[in-house]
Write a structure and sequence with these properties.
- It is a single chain.
- The chain is built from eleven helices and four strands.
- The protein has about 300 residues and is mostly helical.
- The protein folds into two domains: about 1-25 and about 235-300; about 25-230, Cytochrome c-like domain (Cytochrome Bc1 Complex, Chain D, domain 2, Orthogonal Bundle).
- The strands form two sheets. A two-stranded antiparallel ribbon has the order 1-2. A two-stranded antiparallel sheet has the order 3-4.
- The protein is elongated and about 90 Å long.
- The model is unreliable at about 10-50, about 230-240, about 275-285 and about 290-295 (pLDDT under 50).
- The structure holds heme C (HEC) (2 copies).
- One heme C binds near residues 111 and 163.
Length: about 300
């Protein structure tokens, strides 16, 4: 018996090991500098460098495309919120991701190609920032020596609960959606983390340091931004709930199969034992439980 049980036990270990390998998040692409902790990542604020020509361009574009909802001085209206004190980073994120301008004030902002080129977007952001004070400026991102594997840990802890570990995005409990993080620029990741757009929490430097932000950006833009690199199985990035169910069914399915197999072997053993016993009954007409036991022990 003991020898036979060794086989299924080995199978179980093998199945578990395969499962762990298959569902482990992708850390197999440690990009340049992975593991180096001596990072020289710099995320500097560049709010103050706006020129008057830039502000004039920003004002023109804002008046044309934004003021109808946000008011002529971005002070807000019944249709749209006040933009003072948001900072250039927030405005840059909302415009560069195509969320703004909204087609109509009641539709949920969705990612689409931006209406403006980079220069125009920065001009609008600097103009709006000049109307109020505070808020993060547009960050400059330096990813030299940032670590993808560190970034993975930070992402798994802080971001995966909403965006999923593959960055595919997922429905949140309140009917809103955490968007997929594909095709996001390094600056947009920094801006989203620091400004916390919409229903996303804001992560200040006390929670995610500059160095950690650089690690995070490298993970998001170099690893999960490309679905093939996302690690785990290519389940189509269907989100943690669906992936969990697939894991559950495969795992439980394997256990049930192994269970049936062990059960089958045991039944057959019991059957064999019974035949031996019957032979004893027929031949001698007596009851010899000790004999049956002896047979079982001989098997083992
Ligand atoms: C059709 C109306 C409309 C237009 C046009 C529009 N917005 Fe908005 N904007 C909104 C609404 C409504 C919200 C709130 C959306 C939300 O929170 O989901 C918003 C939110 C924002 C936010 C985020 C505010 C915050 O508190 O986080 C920024 C930044 C912004 N808009 C900038 C702009 C800029 C810049 C333009 C012009 C390029 C623009 N919007 C054009 C309606 C509009
Ligand atoms: C509580 C859920 C939640 C958490 C946690 C969260 N996000 Fe978000 N994230 C959102 C939502 C919701 C949006 C869409 C913003 C909106 O409502 O318009 C978003 C938007 C973004 C965007 C902009 C996407 C685009 O299309 O431009 C980026 C980038 C982003 N998040 C990165 C992160 C990173 C990195 C972290 C971890 C540090 C994180 N998020 C943590 C919910 C979350």
């Amino acid at each position: 018996m003991r020898r036979r049980l060794l086989v299924p036990a080995g199978l179980v270990v093998l199945a578990v090991a395969l499962g762990v390998l298959a569902f482990a998040p992708g850390r197999q692409h440690p990009g340049p500098g992975a593991g180096t902790s001596l990072a020289s990542a710099v995320l500097a604020d560049t709010t103050s460098s706006s020129t008057s020509a830039q502000l004039a361009l920003g004002k023109t574009l804002f008046d044309q495309t934004c003021s109808s909802c946000h008011g002529p001085d971005a002070q807000g209206s019944a249709l749209a919120p006040n933009l003072h004190r948001l900072g250039a980073a927030t405005v840059d994120l909302w415009v560069s991701s195509g969320w703004m301008p909204l087609a109509n004030p009641t539709s949920q902002p969705i990612r689409k190609p931006s209406m403006f080129n980079r220069q125009q977007t920065i001009a609008i952001a600097q103009y709006v920032a000049s109307l109020g004070t505070g808020g993060p400026g547009i960050p400059t991102v330096d990813l030299k020596d940032a670590s993808v594997s560190e970034g993975f840990s930070i992402f798994a802890l802080n971001c995966a609960p909403c965006h999923t570990v593959t960055g595919a995005g997922d429905a949140l409990s309140n009917g809103l959606t955490a968007p997929p993080l594909r095709g996001i620029s390094t600056v947009q990741v920094a801006e989203a983390v620091r400004s916390g757009p919409g229903n996303m929490p804001r992560f200040a430097a006390g929670t995610i340091s500059k160095k950690q932000l650089a690690d995070l950006i490298v993970y998001v833009t170099r690893d999960i931004a490309h679905p093939d690199n996302s690690g785990g199985l290519g389940l189509g990035g269907v989100g943690p709930v669906a992936e969990g169910f697939i894991g559950l069914f495969v795992g439980v399915g394997a256990c049930v199969l192994i269970g049936f197999w062990i059960g089958d072997r045991t039944e057959r053993d019991a059957g064999e034992g019974g035949h031996d016993g019957e032979g004893g009954h027929d031949g001698e007409g007596g009851n010899h439980p000790e004999e049956e036991e002896a047979v079982e022990i001989a098997h083992a």
